Amino acid sequence: MSARALRIGTRASELALWQARHVEALVRGQPGAPAVELVRIKTSGDRAGEVPLWKLGGRAFFTREIDNALLAGTVDIAVHSLKDLPTQLEAGVTLAAMLARADARDALVSRDGRHFAQLPRGARIGTSSLRRRAFVARLRPDVVLAELRGNVPTRLQRLRQGDYDAIILAAAGLERLGLTSQITEYLDAADFPPAVSQGVIGVCTRTDDTDALRWLVPLDDRATRLAASAERALLRRIEGGCQVPLGALATLVNGRLNLDASVCALDGSRTLSARGSTPGPIDGPLPAAIADAAQLGERVAENLLAQGAAALMAQERGALAVEAP
Q: Per the residue annotation, which of 67, 84, 209, 260 is the catalytic one?
């Protein structure tokens, strides 16, 4: 048994704690596993709980402080929603495991049980995501988009108290909290491409921490690693972030990796889409397969850029800069 307990750094929200406890259980389930303890850390995204994320500037709102604690030796493991983790990790930090992906789709929760297409004109839809706002505007320009921050239970409470007619959340978060009964409709990824790595739990540690790596590497899920590697390579090349209305989803079918991605103007007026696949099955050694997945992401990104994605995103960033205080 390891001589020291492994300390897991996590945010204190109900969903973040579920994810950290899930990693704890997976570590503890291995023969000879060490003791594990959770360390709750408040992030800049938590402190700015009522501010729309696109007004905060920068990135890593929900991960920076946890990764800093990792590098400082205050914790040994950092558990993140992978979609929150920047594509460029801090020096000395490694993404040791990507757990098997949950449902990547977005989910609609409506107050009266109406599906997205059935919501009346002028219905108030709550979301904190520019990506979701853009794709809603593309399909339903007649509804009203309203800012929505807070943890999952808070968002559901605000819906119930009548602040919104419907809200959009990640299906994975609702499922992990045992709230699938609240879901009115799973939104088709073709219409609402999910955030890069949505539904994936990422587990980081220090690059040189062999003790932690011993227990985390076995948790890595190959199919998820390949899909997320393609999506994150796409995002890295596009140079997007949570302030950019980009959606992407990679799927592994018969060993071949497929990647669909879209960038949408915030008012829904223009959408750029691209699709790519690996030439054949990527079933060789993992390092080579990851490289193939990343190349796929870069190819799809280049397709979007050739269509004018950079100009579209620059235009949207300019509009946000004008609107931000």
A: 84
For 191-236, what is each residue's pLDDT tens digit?
Answer: 999 999 999 999 999 999 999 999 999 999 999 999 999 999 999 9
Q: Where are the alpha helices (DSSP H) in 13-139?
A: 14-28, 44-47, 64-72, 130-139
Q: Which residues contact 87 (CB under 8 A, 6 or more apart)?
A: 232, 233, 235, 236
Q: Verify whether residue 292 is a known catalytic residue.
A: no
The predicted model scores a pTM of: 0.92
Alpha-carbon gap, residue 325 to 320, rounded angstroms: 10
What torsion do the CA atoms of 118, 120, 124, 129 make, to the nearest 10 degrees? 40
pLDDT value for 2: 44
- Cα 166–131–79 angle (5° rounding)? 95
Instruction: Say which CATH class 106-186 falls into.
Output: alpha beta
Task: List the domain boundaries for the chain.
Answer: 1-99+200-220, 106-186, 222-325
- For 174, the token pair is 């609702």
- CATH number for domain 1-99+200-220, candidates 3.40.190.10, 3.20.20.150, 3.40.50.300, 3.30.460.10: 3.40.190.10
CA distance 281 to 283: 6
- DSSP state for residue 31 in the 8-state scheme: T
CA distances from 134 to 41, 85, 103 (A): 32, 22, 21
